[in-house]
Amino acid sequence: MKSRSTNRSGIVMRRKVTPAGDIIVTLLTPQGKIKAVARGGVRGQQASRLNLFHHVGVQLYQTPQADLATVQQSILEGALPRLSEPERHPYAHLLSELADALFQEGEFSEQAFDLYAGSLRGVSRHPDPEWVALVMSYKLLALAGFAPRTRHCARCGAADPSHPDPLGGQLLCGACSNQPPHPPERLEFLREVPRRSVRALMDAPLMAEQRPAVWRSLERFVTVQIGSVQSWRSLVGGDVVGA
Ligand SMILES: [Zn+2]
User: Fold this and answer.
1) Which segment of the chain is annotated as a signal peptide (predicted)?
2) pLDDT digit string, tens, across residues 82-132
3) Span 127-144, mean pLDDT?
4) What's the 150 CA to ligand 1 centre distance in angstroms?
5) Ligand 1 centroid from CA 232, angstroms
């Protein structure tokens, strides 16, 4: 008979404690996204290991009756302690929530894991974590097959639009928009972000005052195309972005 125990190594992208003291975690692994439960986890050693953004190795047990696999054992493989800093934590949270919304259970994607892991490392180390989060959000979207239309007006199809699209987060032509056009550097970023390498994008950051409009476009695009990303909303509406 085939063993129902499997070993996986991945990053905790979501964590929830139930009233019964179980910890339900969602891990992104190179083999795909996994949701599992550590029964009674908050009272044991699992509690400190199965923390948000930790890279953990887990032994999972799946029974046919249960819809969630059980975490039998876990070990900490890596942690990024700087992600708990207040200027970094919201961005790590946002990227995790976005990655969770973009990648489905059962989808095998080593690339998604590498990109998500790289984005957390960037947010933890880089002096400009907001820029890392903006660039990597677009890269995660592009990997999942979502890229805002920028060559043609999202409403009428006219070529080379340069105005914001306040509803859909794409671009509108002057005739379809009642807002002033994006300034040239912001427009260039919005057009080129799917094609340029992460390195090239990191080397040419937008000035801080240009970013709130990019966040708003991204928030609209994600909400319309994928669904609401909660931490995103609080970030865009709150005082972290553009502070
Ligand atoms: Zn138009």
Assistant:
1) none
2) 999 999 999 999 999 999 999 988 777 899 999 999 999 999 999 999 999
3) 96
4) 12
5) 28
Distance 220 CA to ligand 1 centre (A): 18
Torsion of CA 85, 119, 145, 56, to 10 degrees: -90
Q: How far is the CA of 6 from the centre of ligand 1 (A)?
A: 53
Above pLDDT 90, what percent of the chain?
A: 82
Q: Which helix (H) or strand (E) holds 121?
A: helix 110-125
Contact 40, 125 (CB under 8 A): no
Residue 163, CA distances (Å) to 51, 76, 80, 182 in order: 42, 47, 39, 6
Q: What is the pLDDT of residues 8-23, one digit of tens each?
A: 999 999 999 999 999 9
* Mean pLDDT, rounded, of the chain: 91
Task: For Cα atoms 38, 20, 59, give the angle at the middle one, nearest 5 degrees.
Answer: 5
Report the separation in Å between the CA atom of 145 and the middle of ligand 1, taken as the mean of its atom positions.
Answer: 24
pTM: 0.91
Compute, in angstroms, the gap from residue 164 CA to the centroid of ligand 1: 11
d(CA 146, ligand 1 centre) in Å: 21
- Report how far apart the first and last C-alpha atoms of the chain are (Å, whole number): 58
Domains, the chain, ranges and CATH? 5-79 (2.40.50.140), 82-237 (1.20.1440.120)
